[in-house]
Structures are given as structure tokens and as C-alpha cells.
Amino acid sequence: MSTGIWFWILLACAVAFLTKLVGHLVPARLLEDERMTRVAGALTIGLLASLVAMNTVSNGQQVVLDARLGALVAAAIALVLRAPFLVVVLVGAGAAALLRLTGIG
Fold first, then answer.
1. For residues 74 and 26, what is the distance between their CA atoms, to the nearest angstrom?
2. pTM of the model
């Protein structure tokens, strides 16, 4: 790798470290505020949903519809039926395995 890329990698590491350090310096009274708790919860759910969506339908820079989408649908149905989390994961994995076995994805 060139020295230019190493500069950007080290800069990204420094920014990540400083971001974590600043998080530790935030006063506890601000973190215990009810509004902060609601905002943090909403951001966590939104981030997780976007990561799931991107990992389900993308492969690099392409949109791909394969067994992962079927696994997500099966897991969502298990969630709607209020299955325990482990069962949801197993249903999704099983659906992906069956779809791949049939040649989809």
C-alpha cells in the first residue's frame, strides 16, 4: 500500500479513538436525561435497520436479491409471531439454507 493510504488509515484510527474519548468525558447527568435515552434508542434502532437492509440486498456496489432476502422475510415472520430470538435466528438461517439448496442465491 502507498504511504498516502496509510495516512488516511491512521487518521481514521485517531478520529475513532478521539470520538470514544470524548464519549467518556460527557457528564453523567446529560446521559441520564430522558430525552437522551429516547434519542439513543431511536438512533440504535435506525442504525441496526439500515445495516440489516444494506447487508440483505447488496453485494459490494450491486443490488442483489438472493436467499438473504428470503431469510430476512422468514425471520420477520418469526418476530411477528413473537418467537424467541434464538428461534428467529434459526428460522432465518434455515430459510437461507433451504433457498440456497433449491438454487436461489
1. 41
2. 0.63
